[in-house]
Design brief:
- This protein is mostly helical.
- The chain is built from twelve helices and two strands.
- The chain has a two-stranded antiparallel ribbon with strand order 1-2.
- The chain starts with about 40 loop residues before the first helix and ends in a 16-residue tail after the last helix.
Length: about 350
């Protein structure tokens, strides 16, 4: 007998529900090290997708996870600071959440969440974001017949609607979001060629900084944003502020180590042209501003990356205006436009 849902319920049960394993397609990226206690399943990911777009997770039913992590913006927020249910801005720029399956060093700019499942619940209770209690979220979802059905399908051995299963479902969905179809990915597979400007930018991106040989010196970007996901699993101080001008302690607020002052998570540069503004506080609106910062705007403090300190002490990267344009042209090749419209990640 078919289940009948009320008009306010948004996701019906499929005719043939599946608890089968989900095969993560990651061509061009290494096999991810996913948590063994929360394997990806078709029904788990679908439940997570429903919850990701569910505005009833917020106090006034006005925002969802997707409100601050919009698919059309590569799952980021183009506002400097996301606006919560009370109209209050957050304290840091919302990070993009694709390729989370390859994140191996905690979550958020300061790494305060060990696992993605932990990260998924924190915005719900944050007074600047959804400003709701997990207890009330559970009560709300328990009243929904569609969610009762989906939690049973996603977690048949422990089908309760509780905060743990909510977090596990959200973790599964976010782990399923993969970005690997950029122009540069296709270049690596010899499917397309880069333009002369993009190729020059590629050289500058990967080449090391060498002030004694300006013609062969690069921008050294791959030192921090390397590997197939264009990041390095580290927390670094990239010279945004002098020590006396730092308003945000960064990683130090979590570890209480003085060496972590002003250090923030090094994000992936995939889709960087699609996810402005930039830095943890969204201070830069354009890639031109970002490149100018690294070219000759690094502020030296006790915890600034030694490599960046050395570059600044040697007068900066010495990139010409054309060099900077070429570097940005390469960064644009990291944009994955298929990600923006993939129906698997869209609102159900």
């Amino acid at each position: 007998m078919a289940l009948l849902f009320s008009a306010c319920q948004k996701k019906s049960a499929p005719a043939t529900p599946s608890k089968t394993a989900y095969v993560l397609q990651h061509d061009g990226l290494p096999k991810p090290n996913l948590p063994t206690d929360n394997p990806l399943t078709e029904s788990g990911i679908e439940l997570g997708r429903m919850l990701f777009y569910e505005k009833e997770l917020s106090q006034d039913n006005s925002i969802s996870c997707a409100s601050c992590h919009d698919q059309k913006n590569a799952f980021s927020d183009t506002n400097q600071f996301s606006i919560g249910v009370k109209g209050l801005p957050g304290k840091r720029q919302a990070m993009a959440i694709f390729n989370m399956a390859w994140n191996n060093n905690e979550f958020f700019w300061d790494g305060r969440a060990e696992l993605l499942r932990h990260q998924s619940l924190m915005p719900i209770e944050d007074p600047l974001e959804m400003n709701e209690t997990l207890e009330q979220v559970v009560v709300t979802l328990q009243k929904r017949t569609d969610y009762q059905w989906w939690f049973k399908k996603a977690f048949p051995n422990t089908p309760e609607i509780n905060s743990l299963n909510i977090s596990l479902a959200l973790e599964q969905f976010m782990h399923s979001i993969v970005s690997n179809q950029s122009k540069y990915d296709k270049y690596l597979k010899n499917e397309i060629q880069l333009s002369a400007s993009e190729e020059r930018g590629r050289f500058l991106y990967f080449a090391s900084y060498n002030p004694s040989d300006p013609l062969r010196s690069g921008a050294n970007c791959a030192m921090c944003h390397g590997g197939p996901n264009f990041e390095n699993d580290s927390y670094m101080n990239n010279g945004l502020d002098k020590e006396t001008e730092m308003n945000d302690p960064g990683r130090k607020a979590v570890t209480n180590f003085s060496l972590d002052l002003g250090r923030f998570k090094v994000p992936s540069l995939r889709n960087i042209a699609l996810t402005p503004p930039y830095m943890h506080d969204g201070r830069f609106n354009t890639l031109e501003e970002v490149v100018a910062h690294y070219n000759n705007g690094i502020q030296i403090s006790s915890t600034t990356s030694p490599t960046l300190t050395s570059i600044q002490q040697n007068g900066g990267l010495h990139l010409s205006l054309q060099d900077q344009k070429d570097l940005i042209a390469f960064l644009n090749t990291l944009s994955d436009f298929e990600l923006l419209s993939n129906p698997d990640y869209a609102s159900p």
